[in-house]
Amino acid sequence: MNSKSLTIAQWGETQIEPGEIRDLELRFSESYSGMGVAIPVQVRRGIEPGPTIFVSAAVHGDEINGTGAIRQLIMDHSLQLTRGGLILVPVVNVLGFERHSRYLPDRRDLNRSFPGNPKGSLTSRFANFFFEQIVGRSDFGIDLHTASIRKTNFPNVRADLSDPRLREVTNAFGCTLTINEGGPSGSLRRSACEADCPTFIFEAGEVWKVESTVTEHAVRGIRNVLVSQGMIEGDMIDPPYRTVIEKTKWVRAESSGFLDFHVAPGDIVTASSAIATTSSLLGKSREVIESPDDGVVLGMTTIPVASPGEPVCHLGLVDLRENRIHDVVENFPADELQQRIRDDLSTSISIVDPDPVDEEVRPEDEE
After folding, report:
1. Hey, which residues does 45 pair with through a beta bridge?
2. Segments of the chain assigned E as strands
3. Membrane-crossing residues (predicted)?
4. Which domains can be identified in the chain, with CATH numbers?
5. What is the CA radius of gyration of the chain?
6. Which of 8, 65, 82, 137 is deepest in the core (most CB within 10 A)?
């Protein structure tokens, strides 16, 4: 499907010359009143031939950290392509964005609808339009996401590392944590990869926020990829460590209560260490939620209460006997980006030191 019959140079009747930057509005549908509905896109074309990369955000309309990162790139006049092409899409799901919603008006998930169908539902038609117009012109893709509602994610890249091209560009992006997975059926990245446009996602932060350290990380990573492809001049910035995660696990509460966390996003945990404590409204401890294994905290709930079965913490499982990343993390300088992100994301949750007595706490008996 990704035949590259469409090029970076020609968009309908609009011709983009080498070295030119053009703002476009790609109409994909119309409102009830008959007004056109369009996606805003900026296209940058380098002087010399080279790869075309698309960078998209807000496929889920409420995940706008990536929107903030792409807007920084758009407004950066020092970003001059020497070769190739760059397609910047700050908001894909404009209809969800305008409604503060993850979904389109027909309540379908755009990121489960690719490559779409030109004769299908509103969401399916939209997915097909984006796939043809953006993915169909691109050699690589970077899709920016956040955690879903009432959760936060520590920055991580997710990609199918069986593709050597994805190994190369995700390594260049420079994220400390890479989750090796192909993505769910119908997702943009999986469908794009199947159409020979290697695409990965960057997950970080919360919905409906533009968090400064998260956008800094995203911008740095995108620039790294452009440098690695010879598309802009500059030096790549390496992360303090890199690790590949093959398996993840959600840790869930067994007792209801208020949550006091003992870890933050990005922290390293060991098996049986305390992640959080639940307590009653009158302060009586009910449960110490423990880590089932060694790992790194990928994400956490931002809701200060939990009931049995609700997710509390998302772990990326790591064998700490073979991987010494905890030594690196424990010695982060205060101004290291990873430490600043950890501290910023921690402001959404209550973190306290575990009480040694609480290590023996178990759900209280019913009276």
Report:
1. 85
2. 10-11, 14-15, 21-30, 36-45, 48-57, 83-89, 140-145, 151-159, 177-180, 199-205, 243-245, 248-252, 257-261, 268-269, 274-279, 285-290, 295-301, 305-306, 311-317
3. none
4. 10-228 (3.40.630.10), 246-360 (2.40.50.100)
5. 22
6. 65
CA 328 to chain centre: 23
Backbone CA torsion sign across 161, 293, 266, 237: negative
* 295 beta partners: 269, 317
The Cα–Cα gap between 132 and 39 comes to 13
CA–CA dist 18, 48 (Å, integer)? 7
Tokens of 302: 């931002």
Provide the CA 344 distance to its chain's centre, in angstroms. Answer: 16
249, with CB counted inside 10 A (0-12, 13-18, 19+), is middle
By three-state DSSP, how is residue 190 classified? helix
- Position 139: which residue type? D
Task: Label residue 126 left, alpha or beta by phi (over 0 means left) and psi (-120 to 50 means alpha).
Answer: alpha
Contacts of 323 (CB under 8 A, 6+ apart): 243
Q: Which two tokens stand for residue 141?
A: 């893709």
Count CA atoms closer than 13 A to 150's CA, side-chain side.
Answer: 7
Residue 261 corresponds to which tokens in the numbers above? 């966390």
Q: What CA–CA distance (Å, rounded) separates 153 from 145? A: 10
pLDDT along the chain (367 residues), means of 10: 69 95 94 88 97 98 98 95 97 96 96 97 97 97 97 98 98 97 97 98 98 98 98 95 95 96 95 95 92 96 96 94 74 85 93 66 42
* In contact, 137 and 8? CB cutoff 8 Å: yes
